[in-house]
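User: Please predict the structure of the protein below. I'd like the answer in C-alpha cell form so I can feed it into my own downstream comparison script.

Assistant: Understood. Taking the following sequence of 225 residues as input:
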Amino acid sequence: MRYRARMVNADQHDTASSAAPPIVFADAALVVVDKPAGQLAVPGRGDHKRDCSWLHVCHAFADALVVHRLDQATSGLLLFGRGASAQRALSHAFAAREVDKQYVAVVCGLLADERGEIDLPLAADWPHRPLQRVDHDAGKVAHTHWQVLARDERRQRTRLLLQPLTGRTHQLRVHLAAIGHPIVGDALYAASTAGEPRLLLHASGLRLRHPVDARECRWRSEPPF
C-alpha cells in the first residue's frame, strides 16, 4: 500500500495519543525520525490504529511519504521521503540493497562465535498470521549478518550488532529465533519475554546516498536499553 502525500489537518486526527517521534534529520527531500517502541510506523486497520509515526511526521511535513517500515515493537531510525520523486528514489535504493541498515539487539543465550551469517528463506505463516516462518521450499531469500558486541554471563544474554542484507517481514526476529537465540522481550517468537516490557531490538544506523545530490548520509541512534 502507498501512502500518498496530502495536507494534514490536525483537527481531523485528534485520536493520536502517542508522542511525536523525535526528528533526527530533515531537509527538502527526506525526514529521519527516531521511532519509539510500541508506536506503529504506518496506520493499521481500524480507527484505534491510526496513530503512527507517519501521521506525526505529516503534521510537520505534509508531503512525507513512507519508504520503509519498522515493526511496532521495534524502536529506532525510520526514513520518509518528501514527495513522490524522493520516495521513488529512496524506495529504489532499498530495493537495490544500496541502503546500509544496522540494528542492535539483545538475545537469549550466549553465542559461541564472534560473528556469523544467517541464510534462511522466510515466508508468511498463514495459519498463524502475522507470524513468519523459515520455509526452505516456498520462502524468499533472507540474509542477516551478526556480530557480538558484548556477553552478559550472569543473565545469559548477548548483545548483537545486526545487518540485514534483505528486508523481509520480521526477518531479524525469525532468524535469531531459528538459531536458538530469540530476541529478549519478543512476544511473538520467544518462549518467554524474560520479564522485559519491550522487544530489545533497535534500528541504530542508516547509511545511504542522498536522493538529490548523491552525497553519503549517515545517521546513528543509540539503543535505549
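That's the full C-alpha cell string. The helical segments are 53-60, 84-95, 171-178.
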